[in-house]
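Contributing new records

If you add data, match the layout below exactly. Sequence lines come first and carry their own label; structure lines follow with theirs. Keep one chain per record. Anything else will be rejected by the validation script.
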Amino acid sequence: MTGPYPPPGPYGPYPPRPYGYYPPPDSNLVWAILATVFCCLPLGIVAIVKASQVNTLWYQGFAAEAHQAADEARKWAMWSALSIAILIGVYLLVVLIVLLVAGRAIWWVH
């Protein structure tokens, strides 16, 4: 023995960590909040609820459910962002059609 501590055992210096002590999966809470504020409110609220379940499930020992909740939070936040993009696209298409129809109506008058 060269120091104040005994040499490590045959399995390494530390025992294996219990499952709950690994870091939980990314909850995507930031993306859920941003999607709620800037995009679609109902889908963003679902994303926030799913994201808030991640840490609770993880520390209760339900790792698979925590990963599933994190994936669902990401999915709902993504659909919230996509829904506003789709709505803006449809709005621009309607405005373009209205302008084209109005332009032809004005052209026929003269």
